Amino acid sequence: ASPFFHGFQADAEYRLGRWERADYWARVDKRRAALTDDPRLRVLLPLWESIAPMLRGRFDEAYRIQRADFAAFDLDFEDFPAVVVAWAALVPALAGDCDRVVPHLERIFPRDNLDRAARDANRNRDFTRAAHVLAWCRQGRAETALDDALLAAMEEDFLGRPEVGLTSTDWFTAAVTASMRGEADLAVARFERAVALGWRSLNVHAHEPTWAELRRDPRVKPLLQKVREDIEEQRRLAQQRDTEWDPIEWHRQQRVAPAGS
Prior knowledge:
This protein is mainly α. It is built from 16 helices and no strands. Helix 8 crosses helix 10 (125-140) and helix 10 (125-140) packs parallel to helix 12. The two termini are 15 Å apart.
């Protein structure tokens, strides 16, 4: 099977909080990376193993895995395209090593072109979290003026888009931006819109510090409970599906099947 099939499977399991199953696909891809001659896959596949502990809030563990993989494959952030740096850099940042990744993130979100940076941040899921984490890192480094400029540009870009085309992810992104700018009421209202439109990505954002204040808001707790209940129902349906056709069991059988069978 294509490694991108593995990636899609892992992503689906992350969203349902089925971590052991997600880890299975990450391990498969790490083994493939050691065997492939494709430079794209040698770069991409090792990174996926650190994702599950990061999403579970185990930032130090995720960073240890990433550092070991970088050493084993002789990689650094300069070896990746911007879209990969944007999410790979989350691991060191959330583990507290902002100094290592801020220069790389600043190349994605340049100081001298905040309009473009805001468009990239708001309209590409891989860039969105990186922009928020960059702002969060800068807050810790007391660079509040520049941090506010990036978030303000993201806000202006969001307000300039037709509301009819906005997705649940767009509303969640805008809610986090508002929360980081200290606009609690606006953040809650936007998060309500996100949930109403079907936002259920709690498991892949649950431990991110960029919206910790919003999560603590009493008005948000009933919304989070609804999201958790819906995710639990999705887990139940996925487990039912697995009894009919389990992708992991299918993959294991493919690995041991004789050639040509």
